[in-house]
Amino acid sequence: MRVLMTILFCLVAYSLFGQAFSNRYDTLEEGAYDTSSIIYNEDGLTIVGSRLDANLDGLGYFDRVVFSRIDEEGLLVYENYLYEPYHNNRSGFFNRASKVGDDYVFAGFSTSLIDNGDGTFSADSLRPQITRVDNSGNIVWRKDYFISNHINQFFRAIPALDGGIIALGQSYLVDSEDEQVWLVKVDDEGEVVWSKEFGVENSKDFCTKIEVFNNTYLITGTYVISPGTQRAQMYQVDSAGNVLEEFTNFNLEGSPLFSYATHSISNEEFFVRLPKILESDDLDLENHVGLMNADFDMLWTVNVDLNPNDNLALYNADVNDDGDLIFLGRTQSSEFPANTEVVVGKVSYEGELEWIRSFVYSEYGIHILKGLDTYENRIALSGFMIHLPPDNFEVGEQDMWILKLDEHGCLIENCHTGVEEIENTDFKIFPNPTSDYMYADLSNYTIGRGEAEFILHDSFGRELQRVRIVNPEATYVFPVHDLADGMYFLSLFTETEKLNTQKITVRN
Fold first, then answer.
1. In what side-by-side order are the strands of the sheet with 365-375?
2. For residue range 238-283, what is the model confidence (pLDDT) as tens digits?
3. CA 362, 368, 371: angle at the middle one, nearest 5?
4. pTM score of the predicted model
5. 326 forms bridges with which residues in the sheet?
6. What dotted CATH number matches 146-303?
7. What residues pair up with 495 in beta bridges, in sequence order?
8. Which CATH fold topology does 428-506 show?
9. At residue 147, does pLDDT exceed 60?
10. What is the per-residue burial (b if ≥16 Cβ within 10 Å, else e) of 211-229?
């Protein structure tokens, strides 16, 4: 098994192999981004999400749908804000957008607000919505699909097998304990063709993923029978919305599982994510992915948790051109403030965990990426980050954060090739001499999490960078492209002593 962990501390990174980057987008407006849908285009990236704006046009605090385009070098081309006055407009709980011809479609909900007359607003009705926009983010149509005496919301919309659009959501009667899977077919103009509801009787059904597989739809999610009793569910549905197969009790080694996504790789097999609830703690999970065939037999499963203390949560996955699974999630520290790291990994078609890498934008902060798309094996990720200075734990501004990686999950060229051996050292650095970036590896040390840190000094002893050891199994990357040519020193410290110092030559 080939596994490489890499943590990157860089503000903006461009590599020699192409336009890989890690960019934070702050338009200097007040508000909080949540961008969790990304689509890879030949000329760049399309991002759909939402933004909570402070006192928009004097109307109060509102969510606006944001449609953004970013070019192949990571530059923001434009942003379109799609909103209605006195409405919170969300592109969906998971903010998933799909390409339909030359347009984009996304489903969600809009909440109308009532002006209370004292500067505050109250929520009125929840309106499920489907929105279609053109390539420039202009609305082609946006329609509501309200059902009387029901509470409805959409999670995702995709192109239908027989033309038009399929939207997946949730529907239930007001004051009802029974929440159903809701599937709606609309034509290219947004007019309803049919509407279906199904699910586990006397349960709360929560399916958020729909995937085309073998000329049918696969719908996956969870259902809750009682508090603390959560199970996986999967439905195979034909083009008319009829349920062909129903699976509502997945188990692995006798433990309950729940699945949020399927990812087809052919008409014969598909990946499925099946987190396993550990027997010892209902809140403790092991994250498994598996491969199933068209008969819904599990061919294999693999646990992608390297360290059970990392509190790994998986958000999304996609299949690259080679038929391998790329998964996306985050880890969260138990320290205060609760810093999070983005985790990206690859599982081969044969079931081998090939690599896992973690990314942060700021050493201290919250980092969550939920949008994922692959193109020619390259990887694009979208989400947000919040910087939390170590001396000030107040929540900072929430900005859009986009990562674009190569086929190896690298932000920096050749990060997958391993560590160059350097004689007579306790920790390893490479390359040396270096330019742009420098790697530091801790494989020869036994250091606990949070017990040590790297400090980079210049030849005059001035401190330039300080990086806390978040994961002792990681390879750390230092940006040095802004440093002048010369000699520098990287030291490894614990709280009580200096363990080692390496001399570095920078040649930019």
1. 21-25, 398-405, 378-387, 365-375
2. 999 999 998 876 554 433 444 555 677 777 899 988 766 554 444 4
3. 125
4. 0.76
5. 318, 346
6. 2.120.10.10
7. none
8. Immunoglobulin-like (2.60.40)
9. yes
10. bbbeebbbbbbbbbeeeee
